[in-house]
Design goal:
two-stranded antiparallel sheet; alpha/beta; 311 residues; 11 strands; Rossmann fold; globular; 2 domains
Length: 311
Amino acid sequence: MPEPPYGEIADLLKKGQVIPFLGAGVNFGARPPGAKWDEATDGFLPSGAELSRYLAGKANFPSQDLRELSDLAKVSSYYAEMLGRRRLRERLNQLFCRQFNLCDIHTYLAEIAARAPLLIVTTNYDNLTEFAFHQAGHAFDRVIHPTDRKDVEASVLWWKSDAMEPSAVPPNQLYIDLKATTVIYKMHGTADCALRKWDSFVITEDDYVDFLARMTSQTAVPALFMRHFRARNFLFLGYGLNDWNLRLILRNLETAFPGETPAEIEDGGIRSWAIQFRPSEFEVELWRARGVKVYDVDINQFVKRLREQTG
């Protein structure tokens, strides 16, 4: 497999022309080789499968099939059914609101955003991206997809850079000057470590059904972001396409993919990239079908090479 075009990706990032799209795999950058996660682990976050198996144990999930135990949406649905949605939120907040080591990709994006504002999209619940920006002293706005609150269910939650509490804004009425403001868009919610009342998690099967229904009706992802997507390149980091819910979300986002029509793909017009460590042949084909070039690279090695090109 060829190497990524590090120089071009670095140059486009410096110009704010790339949308970093962060998945759970980026957090392996802070994990020692061979290390396993459990409830007492400090320093690094669980993978989706590890989180799923942990919740399954707590809820006495009625299957020992490894595939089912690793299905986070299914296990979370069972947990919420048996123990209640509130207890699920509390458990997730306890797991994600702890001290974790920053990954190279988080600190690198904070450095890049000092040169040109970025729109960073993540489906992760943790706050490592925000911590990296705070540590670097760079202001940012944060936009969250809410769940569990009827009063804001038709809105997104928008924290301006200096705000303690968010504004609830209909997705298609959100306006932020993206030429001047870095935005962290948390598509699947967040663990709010300051005020638990703003905890939000798209995690159960029903959550994904609701989110995808809103995407179909164009009331999930703010129209401002969708317009921004169409003029820029996507850089998918830490995603695997084995997850059906991610495949469906990407399918709904395809109208925003740059250079993704069959003719453009045949002409070599692919302008989106995925960095995934050891993708399966199945995943490579799925990325290719979406006009995305996938590269088998360790996330820390990828960031190291980008830094060499950034100057």
